[in-house]
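Q: Could you fold this chain for me?
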Amino acid sequence: MNVLRTKADKLMTGKPFKSSRDLKNHAYIHTGAKPYSCRHCSDSFTWHRQLKTHLLKSHNESTWFTCHICQKKFSRSDQLKTHLLRHEDVGPYVCSECAKCFYTAYALKRHQPTHSDFKPFCCGLCDKDFKCKENIIKHFK
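A: Sure. Below is the predicted structure, expressed as structure tokens.
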């Protein structure tokens, strides 16, 4: 029995996607498919990005992106770019409700429900509603 669901799950039978490729990639979550295989070992991955990271970390294939300030290494350039914002103490994503700054759009998106009464996650056992996924997971424990 799946006890973690969203209110959208109650209302919709399917999740909308921008393209058929996005839908195909999403389906991997449900099928457990891992179509990206490592040419050096027997590991396989759901996402191409996971394979690229594996090739870099496990087989030293490709190059690291290194912070010129602290020498921390990243497997992707977008990770380094976000990291550099922390050195500059710049959070370019600003909450319109409280002016709190965030380094990533995802972090801002996770913060925004704190200003709303909307609770999109509901427990499949007791129907209690929650604003964020982390809180419903704590509820289950």
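A (continued): Helices lie at 7-11, 20-31, 48-59, 77-88, 105-111, 133-140.
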